[in-house]
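If you are new to this repository, start here. Below is one unmodified record pulled from the training split, so you can see the exact layout before writing a loader.
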Amino acid sequence: MGRVLALSKKLGQWGIFSSIGIHVARYQGGDYLAQSGEPRSFDYWRSLAFASFGFYCGGVYHWVYGPIYTFLFLQRGVSALPVVLFDYAVTAQVLYFPPYYLLQDFIRSETPSCTRALEQCSAQRWEDFQALISVFLPLSWFNYSFVPSCWRGTFSGVAGLVWAIRLSNLRGIEV
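And here is the target side for that same chain:
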């Protein structure tokens, strides 16, 4: 067991790169799988928007799920469930959905508008929240309960492929 922990710590130094790479593959791959099941032609701008969002998530959530949540919650003995609830109620509403809508509008619209993107985000908030918890509630609990801090962003990226497909099906067609 000692060798596994030593290897995990050594590779964890490069965790942000794996987190970004996996998130890009997750979102672009999820969108590709979603688009391949649609009758219309492949939308490369949509694919670029999902890949860009994956890059954003990989970088941001590596830090959020690793050192920040560890410092704020897990080092203080807060159990996984309150962390997950905070993640959905606060973090997803501030760091996840607004940037998603902003990137989609910026990349896919002929006339990007921050106001329009944030209004759309606000209008879709409850439906997006319900979709998010339907996929991520069990995955997040496992992530905070068992995955080492340096690998939480990577785990989130890998486990979230199902969510990326769901998000692309739910919101990918809209601009």
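Two things worth knowing about this chain: The chain has one domain: 2-171. Residues 114-146 form the longest helix (33 residues).
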